[in-house]
Amino acid sequence: MANSARRVFHGSLDRHPPVRTILDALNFRLTRIVAINQRLGTRTTRQNFDLSLTEWRVLGVASALERASFQAIRDTLFMDKAQISRALKVLSSRGLITTSPCPEDGRQLLVSLTASGRVLHDKALAVSLQRNEADLSDLTPAEVEIFFDLLDRIARSVERQLADDAEQDIEDPSE
């Protein structure tokens, strides 16, 4: 079937541009960008810092949140416990982080960067900033500001959907 003969789908509120194929869908387009960025990021973090992309993300979030709990890292990254646990073990064995029990909840771990972890983080963050600059090079500063605002709004929307979905799972009497 030729593209011009494909059925066109519109969102119920007609906010989404026409979708003729999966290639036009927002989620597909975002996922594709993420996949490309992950491939580049994996290569960069492994070659330059001997970190997996997951290890870099855990290190970066632990830095951003300061004395971050395991749960806060997990909630921020939307990763499963095993992935984060493996990353924390590697980072700890390399002397990049320390973990300690959370005073409020002894079952939780608090993660902090060591001095060498901070140095590595700062170097990796500088490389990430260079990559971000390259990714955004076709946009004006005003467009970048609008783009980040739109990403934040979409993130809030999907987080609300996730929370609503979780509430429905809890309320589902059929389970």
Any overview of this molecule?
The protein has 175 residues and is mostly helical. It has 2 domains: 112 residues, Winged helix-like DNA-binding domain superfamily/Winged helix DNA-binding domain (Arc Repressor Mutant, subunit A, Orthogonal Bundle), CATH 1.10.10; 30 residues. α1 crosses α5, α2 crosses α3 and α2 crosses α4. The radius of gyration is 20 Å and the shape is globular.
Largest sheet: 3 strands, antiparallel
In angstroms, what is the radius of gyration?
20 Å
What is the CATH superfamily label of the largest domain?
Winged helix-like DNA-binding domain superfamily/Winged helix DNA-binding domain
The helix content is: 55-70%
**What is the rounded distance between the termini?**
42 Å
Give the low-pLDDT segments.
Answer: none
What global shape is seen?
globular
Strand order of the largest sheet: 1-3-2
Q: What is the count of distinct domains?
A: 2
What is the third-level CATH name, the topology of the largest domain? Arc Repressor Mutant, subunit A
Counting DSSP E segments of at least 2 residues, the number of strands comes to 3
Give the amount of beta strand, in percent. 5-15%
Q: What is the C-level CATH assignment of the largest domain?
A: Mainly Alpha
Query: In DSSP terms, counting alpha (H) and pi (I) runs of 4 or more, how many helices?
Result: 6
User: H/E series, N to C?
Assistant: HHEHHEEHH
Q: Which class best fits the helix and strand makeup?
A: mainly alpha
Q: Which architecture of the largest domain per CATH? A: Orthogonal Bundle
pLDDT average, as an integer? 88
